[in-house]
Each structure stands twice: as structure tokens, then as C-alpha cells.
């Protein structure tokens, strides 16, 4: 289904017959698949108030000092101000001039869900966790899991034009699938401090800023339109979401028909094994120190029981990573 294009703050206004100022150009947002306000509500209100105040002052000034380039009518003044204020304000907000109630509701529900399932943690903790993930996972990424990621993610190059990565973290997966000028990537993560690392990884892959967007959110309520994604990528993320089943339903919702879900997750060891005993014993501590990560989830079985078609779920053991050595990986289709 074709999605309507969202536009930035400035909209083209019809030219007045007496105005010499040209009509404004309408700017199309590169990510029409979602809408995310960059400013918090309070800051948005302040911005609107300042904009309204500046407009009134400018109109009063213009009525006293009209130049040959303006006729003095309200329409002309709005055009003149919009030509200068529009590009500036568009740097701070992605709201279209005419709000879409369904999109506002989508974002509102996503924000409420994030507050519910992943309340804000102290900045120092989230920053520390982002640094630890960036530095501490390099060996795992380079030596342990790279082959699996190449096998699963490389085929997306040139095939998927819109990709959502759930739990993008510091962006270690981008190099496997994000390349070229025809791909748009949306990265979702509840830790806002991951953004600078993910953006740097996107830049290293050659993605333009218009091709990558980081969203502070959770998998249980994605601020993404229905049936808008060619692929959803998820690695080491379902261990940390609050509700795996609800997250998978969200993945299915945002995928296009026959869209692909690609996953690599660490899971629980088989019942009765010594590893499962230690996983169960240390699971509460793991959740506390690793931002909600669970050691005993049977994620493969949950995916198998979801409404995906053609699900291919494989089990493997990654040596020398102790508690999280059991992994499931594979693909599934909507």
C-alpha cells in the first residue's frame, strides 16, 4: 500500500496577486513510514509560543514598514516569514502542517508503552551501559557471531528498501545489510545513549543522514506504520523486551506481506543441564546488571508458536561465552 508523504513544517502557500514573493516549496520527509517528534512536549509548546510571538511582532512591524517586495497582507507576511523560519524550525520537528490523528495516536501509544515496560533509568547508567556494550561486545561480534550474521543479513543488500532494526544498540549489524542509496533504516532502542554509536556506525557504512533514523522506543509498541517494512532485524534483543509475544505481534504488524523477520538470540539451555541450572540461578542478577536481559527464555519456541509463515529456526552453541552460549537463529516471513 502506498504511504502518504509527510511534509515538514513549511507548506507551500498560494501566491497573492499583489505579492512579488514566490510561493514556498514543499519539502518531503525522507521517512514517510513513521513520524517521530524530536522535541519533548514541553519544548514543542515553547517553540510554538515563540513562533507565534515572533509572527505577531513581525506582522506589526511589517504593517508599519512595507517594502516594495511585500503588499502588507497577512498572506504575504506569512509567506515571507515562512521562507526564513520554515527551514530553521524543520530542524527541530518533523510534524506536518496538518496533523494526522492516527499518527499522533500511534506515537502516543508507543510513548506510553515505553514508560510502562522500560521506565527511564539514570543517565549515568544508560551511558555506562552503552559504553560497555560498544567496547565489551567487540570480541563476540568479530570472532563468535560474524559468520551467522553474514549468512542471514547479507542477502538483504539490494533487496530490502526499508529495514527496521529492533534493539539496534550501537549498530554492529548495519555493516552487513545497510549499503547503497536505495535503503532506509530505522533503528529502535529504549536506551537513548545508543544513538550516537548507531549513527556513527551508519555513517561508517556510507549511509546518509536521510537514510538512517534512530527512535527511542520499545518493541512492544513500535511507532511505525502498518505494513511499511521490507525486513525487521533483531539480534540479542528479544532477551530484554518485557513481552516477547507482544513484540513479535508488532513485528508482524509493521512488516509488508511476505516481509522478512531475521533473528539471532541467545536462549535457555536444555532442561536438566548444569548450564540451565546456572542460568536459572544467575538470571535475576543478569536482569539487574544487563538492562533486563533474561538468561532462561525459550525464544525459539515463542517464534515457532507465532503467526509467521515459513519459519526456519536453528539452534547452535557459541563456544567460550559461558552463560549465553545457546543461540537460535533464522528467518520467518509474514
Strand percentage? 15-25%
Compute the average pLDDT.
Answer: 78
Report Rg: 24 Å
Cα-to-Cα separation, first versus last residue: 15 Å
Structural class: alpha/beta
For the secondary structure, the number of strands is: 7
Query: Segments where pLDDT lies below 50 for 5+ residues?
Result: 1-32, 34-99
Main β sheet profile: 7 strands, mixed
For the biggest β-sheet, the strand order reads 3-2-1-4-5-7-6
Shape: globular
Give the number of helices: 11
Oligomer: single chain
What is the helix fraction of residues, given as a range?
A: 25-40%
N-to-C order of helices and strands = HHHHHHEHEHEEHEHHEE
Protein model, in words:
The protein is 40% helix and 16% strand. With 334 residues, it is of the alpha/beta class. α8 links the parallel β2 and β3. α1 runs antiparallel to α2. It is globular. The N terminus is likely disordered.
Tell me the layout of helices and strands.
Layout: H1 41-64, H2 74-89, H3 101-117, H4 123-136, H5 138-144, H6 146-153, E1 162-166, H7 174-177, E2 184-189, H8 195-204, E3 212-216, E4 229-235, H9 244-254, E5 255-266, H10 274-289, H11 299-304, E6 309-317, E7 326-333
Parallel strand pairs: 1-2, 1-4, 2-3, 4-5
Antiparallel strand pairs: 5-7, 6-7
Helix pairs in contact: 1-2
Which features would summarize this protein structure in a list?
disordered N terminus, 40% helix, alpha/beta, 334 residues
What does this entry show, briefly?
By secondary structure, the protein is α/β, with parallel strands linked by helices.
